[in-house]
Amino acid sequence: TCYMLMLRLQRVGKIKQPSYRLIVSPKTRDTQGRSVEMLGEYHPLINPPLVNFKKERIQYWLSVGAQCSATVHNLLVSNGVIEGKKQKVVRLSGTRKAALAAKEKAKAPEAVAPAA
């Protein structure tokens, strides 16, 4: 079977105390399901955040064609595991973009009117 592998974060930990595992799993599989391999852990609430990644294994999976989620990509760039620019993580739906554009359009005439 040919399926796309992803490096992504699997949330573990208590309520309101998240910690994450960096896992390799098929893109279509739920992150809470079985993973191919665990590549490290990330604890964002500790100051400074604890990042413990297996760099050699991450490099291996990327070399055989696995892709990173945007958040994982940014974490790997921040920690010097891979080179590159950070990716934008938040994506807006078409409906949300239209609503924001309408809001901006409604705001623009107000700014012009008092000046006139």
Task: Describe the fold and architecture.
This protein is an alpha+beta fold. It has 3 helices and 5 strands. It has helices spanning 55-63, 70-78, 94-115, and strands spanning 5-14, 17-26, 37-43, 50-53, 67-68. Strands 4-3-2-1-5 form a 5-stranded mixed sheet. The protein is globular and about 55 Å long. 14% of the residues are buried. The model has no long low-confidence stretch (mean pLDDT 85).
What key phrases describe this protein's structure?
28% strand; alpha+beta; globular; 116 residues
Structure summarized in a few sentences:
With 116 residues, the protein is an alpha+beta fold.
Numbering strands along the chain, what is their spatial order in the largest sheet? 4-3-2-1-5
Structural class: alpha+beta
Q: What is the CA-CA span between the terminal residues?
A: 67 Å
- What portion of residues is helical? 25-40%
The largest β sheet comes out as: 5 strands, mixed
Give the helix tally.
3
Would you list the SSEs in sequence order as H and E?
A: EEEEHEHH
Question: How is the secondary structure organized here?
Answer:
Layout: E1 5-14, E2 17-26, E3 37-43, E4 50-53, H1 55-63, E5 67-68, H2 70-78, H3 94-115
Parallel strand pairs: 1-5
Antiparallel strand pairs: 1-2, 2-3, 3-4
